[in-house]
Design goal:
The chain has 14 helices and 2 strands. By secondary structure, it is mainly α. A two-stranded antiparallel ribbon has the order 1-2. Helix 4 (about 80-115) packs across helix 8 (about 175-200), helix 4 packs antiparallel against helix 11 and helix 13 runs antiparallel to helix 14 (about 280-310). The longest helix is centred in the first third of the chain and has 34 residues, at about 25-55. It is flat, with a radius of gyration of 29 Å.
């Protein structure tokens, strides 16, 4: 018996025709086509306004003499202006108190929620994150009503006992009133970042530590916090930049806190006053860039220090 090998062997599929490779120039054009919409928006709404503000900051508009080029004179004036320097000093002091407080609150809550499981933990995460979803203007107005010594619940609660409640919109307590608002609004956002970092830690590290006899407190100090140090540095930078650009909350509460928040309370408010209340666009632009320089220097110093120390939290 013979077998026809030619008929029993499976038919060999024909090889597909070789694909034509796109030229590097064509690939480059396709890439630029995808990037172009974002690039147009980025250049039109970020780069162009910045360049125009920089251009304005180099001129001075006078009632007599018109507009003339003054170079860096507006910048020299800004760094010797007591209103601008007082605003810088205020946001620096505010940062020194606010950032450690926010870090402590967000880190504590994240560590607790990392241990607790179940529906209560999910509900707690949502409730703690909720203030971040509220617009800053609405949040500031809400706290302004709560702080009110005329109809606020704090004043009424103290009034039931014949006492006078603290006035967080007064000149003496406005610092703490703003501190409470900003912490309430941003601690949940930072908590979510830290909680996500904690969820990324390998659970076998905890098991190995428990086998070695480590307590829960030692696991927190020796494993969890050192491993989420990059996330802590990240939110520290976010908090530092946001605090140095402090504007929304004091600007809204300014009309509720009579006399406690002047128009030059923070550098951003001072720039806003110069540009839009006094129509001094040139000097307002110079103040904005001077504040940007201060923010850049502060962030660079902070990143340099943390880079030099490496695992400074371990």
């Amino acid at each position: 018996m013979t077998v026809d090998l030619a008929q029993s062997a499976p038919a060999v599929a024909a090889a597909p025709p070789p694909r034509r490779r796109r030229s590097p120039r064509r690939q480059s054009l396709v890439g630029w086509g995808f990037v172009a919409p974002f690039a147009v928006v980025f250049l039109a709404f970020l780069v162009a306004p910045l360049l125009f503000a920089l251009y304005l900051s180099l001129f001075q508009n006078q009632l007599i003499g018109g507009t003339r080029f003054v170079g860096i004179a507006n910048y020299a004036k800004a760094f010797t202006d007591p209103n601008f320097l007082d605003g810088i000093w205020f946001v620096l002091r505010f940062s020194l108190v606010l950032i450690p407080l926010q870090m402590a609150v967000s880190l504590t809550v994240a560590l607790i929620l990392d241990v607790v499981t179940g529906a209560f933990a999910r509900f707690s995460r949502l409730m703690i994150f909720l203030p971040y979803a509220i617009p800053a203007v609405i949040g500031a107005l809400m706290w302004g009503f709560l702080y009110s010594k005329s109809f606020g619940p704090v004043a009424e609660l103290f009034g039931m006992f014949g006492l006078v409640g603290p006035d967080f919109l007064s000149r003496n307590l406005i610092f703490f009133g703003l501190l409470n608002i900003v912490t309430w609004q941003w601690a949940g956002y930072y908590m979510i970042i830290l909680y996500a970092a904690l969820q990324g830690i390998d659970p076998t590290l905890y098991e190995a530590a428990r086998i070695d006899g480590a307590s829960q407190w030692q696991i927190v100090l020796r494993i969890k916090i050192p491993l989420i140090a990059p996330a802590l540095v990240l939110i520290l930078v976010f908090a530092l930049i946001g605090t140095l650009q402090f504007f929304n909350e004091p600007q809204i509460l300014r009309y509720l806190a009579a006399g406690a928040i002047p128009a030059d309370f923070t550098p951003n408010m001072y720039a806003y006053q110069q540009a839009f209340a006094l129509a001094n666009y040139n000097y307002g632009s110079a103040i904005s860039f001077a504040l940007g320089a201060v923010v850049f220097v502060c962030v660079y110093i902070f990143l340099f220090i943390t880079r030099k120390r490496g695992s400074f939290l371990s």
